[in-house]
């Protein structure tokens, strides 16, 4: 079957047709137009399938908040065709058995590629290195290692992890948070934290670990990826490390591109996240860093939590926000509508670059003939209020509930298979 997408606005801004056949993009000029299924893409923006390097799918062990199957539904709805699943499951993804289980569940769900992330340390305990080689060599083919949720605080352990990863062409994705500087911290350290009587979280807790890790990565000749950069100071450290030629990449979350600590005033657990929402100057610096390439990618840090984990005193609530279904709209609002990124830039920071960091094949030539047909059609003119009832994941702990966001993901193809049609996730088994 051939599908013809007519009149889409593609990455350079030009309007052209795209054709999907046998899982790949083919030359529309060679297609029998009468026999093809046609999708009218006029007025729509075509993007390559989005890739999320930082998703919590919660399975195994956290199925009350999310499963691989519900998580990939949310991913597809948000325009994602590939998600990297974080290792802080229960049991932790520190053995081939767990990463292979997550990978298999992803294949069964079929809506997006699920690439398990392996733990850096056994049990995320920060004491003993997990067997990175075994995870990389497993059927799940792990390429990214992270203790996310926890910082690899021990410099010696981080050094060894970077050395092992370098030998495997893998990357260590560090959750940069000095635990000694963040004991009991639940929000950004600021006058507002003092006013609200909540323990603050200094920017230096993040930046100091990134500075240390950059030097360790340089010494090891390894690739370092910094998870969820949240402050001006960290941006500056990443900028300096890049200028020095260190193989460092960094991500920013959609929520850190749009929201500030002011939201914590209502003590609503939905706004509690790790790292915390910061100040306006941080939001501005993060946007500029994403625009100028200091920050390489947007990653959601989609972190589903069951209602009871959030509907409690702010200090006791779980850290985390769901984000797969709102990421593109937030990026449109914060980066495209502000003139900081064009759609080609969005494709770079939400697809090509995260795939490159995670060594995921098939995303290096976005929307090019011959590439796998991972395609998203977005209506940039649509606007909608985010409602809990419309979210496809199992948890609704979104900071954007009740907020109007631009952009609607209308159609998605994952390897040529339609996963979203007219804004609805297409169910019906594995690819
Ligand atoms: N980002 C979050 O706020 N939460 C993450 C882990 C973490 O604490 O980083 C989660 O797994 O819930």
Automatic annotation (TrEMBL):
Its EC number is 3.5.2.3. Pathway: Pyrimidine metabolism; UMP biosynthesis via de novo pathway; (S)-dihydroorotate from bicarbonate: step 3/3. GO terms for molecular function: allantoinase activity; dihydroorotase activity; zinc ion binding. Zn(2+) 2 binds at residues 148, 175, 228. Gene3D superfamilies: Metal-dependent hydrolases, Urease, subunit C, domain 1. It is an enzyme of class 3 (hydrolase). Zn(2+) 1 binds at residues 54, 56, 148, 301. The active site is at 301. One of its GO terms (biological process) is purine nucleobase catabolic process. InterPro entries: DHOase, DHOase/Allantoinase_Hydrolase, DHOase_cat, Dihydroorotase_CS, Metal-dep_hydrolase_composite, Metal_Hydrolase. Its cofactor is Zn(2+). Catalyzes the reversible cyclization of carbamoyl aspartate to dihydroorotate. NCBIfam families: PRK09357.1-1, pyrC_multi. This is Dihydroorotase. It comes from Agrococcus sediminis. The gene is pyrC.
